[in-house]
Amino acid sequence: MPRMARWALAAGAALALPLVAPNPYHLDVLTTSLLFALLALGLNLIVGLTGLLHLGYAAFFAIGAYTYALLNLHTGCPFWIGWLPAALIAGLFGVLLGAPVLRVRGDYLAIVTLGFGEIVRITFTNLERLTGGPNGLLGIDHPSLWVPGHGVVDFGVASAPYYVLVCFATAAVAAACVRLTRSPIGRAWIAIRDDELAAGCSGVPVLRLKLLAQACGGAIAGLAGAIFAAKQGTITPDSFDFVLSVMVLAMVVLGGMGSIRGAIIGALLLGSLPEFLRGFDQYRMLVFGLSMIVIMRLRPQGLFGGAAGRHGRVA
Amino acid sequence: MVAWLEVRELTKRFGGVTALDRVSFDVGEGRTVGLIGPNGAGKTTLFNCVTGVARPDGGTVRFGQGLAHRLDGRASHRVAGFGIARTFQNIRLFSSLTVVENVLVGASARTTHGLAGALWPARAARDHERRTASRAMELLAFLGLADRAAAPAGSLPFGRQRRLEIARALIAEPSLLLLDEPAAGLNPVEKQELLGIIRQLKSRGLTILLIEHDMQVVMPVSDHVVVLDYGKKLAEGPPQAVQNDPRVIEAYLGVPQEGR
Q: What is the pTM for the complete model shown?
């Protein structure tokens, strides 16, 4: 299967990278970009496939991060267990937000989700006794792993272990997304995006599937949040602001709405571009913005959007 | 004749406009009923009230064996679940899905949308998907679209898009099919092909409710015709009788003194 071989090759190359190029700074940039890729994959389900414009996606990331952090600080729950409730609770918030909100559409939905994102951030800022307020939470445990011959190794502040962890997470989430898009669920999501009314009349339970998209997208962001909290050891509310939501949205749009490859490539590109552009010094963000405009001007459908993103498949 | 769809006193208002004004009629099992009337008569609104797209302000719609199911005010996917499929006057395909995928979405009422099942499909689900896909291909062959199965739906020419809508409706194996102006925009050859398709569906015993402007389409296939005008039922009866009804002629052609 050449397709499988390609994937295996990509995975092998990605995992071998720390051995070839062990520069911790580069690995760190890549790790951050891959965390963005996780977020973009999740948002892609909501915005790209189902067509629900969501401007508060960072809130799910925050909920995941705080869930793991609080669990870890209060119960000592290790990362390898803590990521699961982080993902589940973020997914649950996707449903809780969605249930009242998904009856509004288009621009209105965008405004409501924007409000949701802000409310979550402001809540974490002000629930000082629980979340430490603007100072955030400190001393969150890094993941540790038992390695044969070395005993229990703490990930600490090293770069490579997190890089490998995020690689695995991204691969697993991407694989799940591929499966989803090829299932009747993915088909129904796209049907809702293309024509909600016709989807309903074709028997698609529109509201339920919108909630499912929000739940899945939220859970993926929750997982990313848990990894982020475990990697940083410290989280503050200002890591989860509106700009983050917009960045992730830009990654999805740049990659091509609905495309899984697009979400990953878009995130790697936008996540690492500011670092590549360090040479431009104070003009860095200017060049960054310009390159985004140029890309969208040349490929308005995104890098892998349109026909390139989804090949016709007869099941 | 057993009523399969019963519309009673159906009323729908949009602000000050009464789009449907206490409309009542029956569709008998296995029959083809034509729904005609001038533009703006409320035909599509009636379809919308039957299929859960619009919520009627009054009246009831009952459907099925013993008229056991109330349709009015239900969500459209529930109506679809009862075995009712429809097409749209202004074509509403899923333009970024392929032709065959469009048809597969039509089977959604009989498909489970479980998350676990999507991530780890059980053998039964895979078999179901495979059977649905092969039935979709049969339908595409029936409607002359098999050669374009893998093409994006948006790339089809207009006449074939209309037929794709019919395929998407048929895969649900409906027991009532609602066709909203299926001949609109078709050339004479395509209209004849459409007539052939409707006749075949009729001969299989499918109950059909058909909105159509084109008398050459609606008259030959309908067993019964209901005429709407300004939201009210103007007349109903066998096609010949309705066609010669002076009120119907007036509604369509207008009478100069009334300035229509």
A: 0.91
